Please model this.
Amino acid sequence: MATAAETIALPALEQAAAVRAGEVSASELVDESLAAIERLNPDVNAFVELAAERAREEAAAIGPGDERPLAGVPIAVKDLGPVTEGIRTAMGTAISGDWIPPFDSAMVAKLRAAGAVIVGKTNTPELGITPVTEPARFGPTRNPWNLERTAGGSSGGSAAAVAAGMVALGHGNDGGGSIRIPAACCGLWGLKPSRGRVSVAPLVESPSALVVDGALTRTVADTALALDVLAGYELGDTVSPPPPRTTFADAAAREPGRLRVGLSVDPPVDADVHPECAAAAREAAELLERLGHEVDESGPDWHEAGQLEDFLTIWAVDATAGAQKVGLLSGGLDPERTEPLTRDLIRRAEGVSGVGLLDALIGLRTYSRRVVRWWARHDVLVTPVLARPPVAHGELDAAPGEPAIEQLYNGMRFVPFCPPANITGQPSIAVPFGTSSDGLPLGVQLMGPPAGEELLLALAAQIEAAIPRRRPASP
Model:
């Protein structure tokens, strides 16, 4: 019989099975998770808020025979987006104060109903704006594989917590790569589901509909399990993709069949792709060919000069609208209490007219139509996740004398392959695939057809069976 210390290193699916079988108690698992956080978090800085007392109370009520899919499993929830009743939600910014929500978002309620025990909230950049997690309020989250490097963003805290073995499952959300980026940085699986797959109820989604919630995990089976728990329509949702034919867990357990796969290491915006990132994508494509898939070097027509500016216009308006809502939690938005990049985005958004905003939205919808056409002749696109291996802390900052908004352009050049899936609404998964010459994880992206999570999970599981599984990192 495994000890709690051994069980906490297992995938979430296996942790729940051990609790169900009475091999370990939920209380022992939660205590082991909290002990790991106490030991590792001072170096990694993944968690910004703990709910230890509440977690222990909830774990004590879970016993053997509990058939819920995540019974007794300690998990992390990103401190941005979904709100958690009774646990501070700060969203990476000083303007939120110390707000404690009086209710759970639907997504959080589903996790609790599935038996998961939330041990705390994880770090995120201010309002989730950047692809690295370095908020002024809470400080940088460090990559467990190398504390001098980024864990990615904006779900960097959750990724670091999972990669270091504090929890087996971390919630994340993704508006421009924010699940896939930290997954690639930390050697994890990270699925961005289809637009509308996971409801934001009772909150209201942005008209841009770029963001969707998901999870960061160490196995494909855990990724599928999390999506089964999180997915589903809630009354009032404006977008809802077709439901899966069975469960996502079933999809991850079946053969994908012979697929038509394209490979592209040519980014949609002007960015230099590091040879090791390109090589990982090529090696993944070669593996898929050996597994029997039809592979050619091609990609969608996703080069357009105006796409980046339209995307950043929407990003600025979304960030400003978010800042205004969050600012109400502490008496109103004072831009001077935000970080320089956020202030630059607010200034940019203030210069966007209603017609300008609608024009940018139409521009992205037009771009989306053109990109998605590629899937008429293909099933999956393989690309790098990142243009470079995980960067050092502060490396994406604007240079002295440059406006802070240059940090956002630097970020886009770091993650150029990620935003198209948010613009089109297609599912996309980060696959941990190899390491760089200095021992850092590399990630490969599989971008699937619209509403194609089942296909992606089946293919990801096939890849997982053919590559070594990573153990938790040792900071």
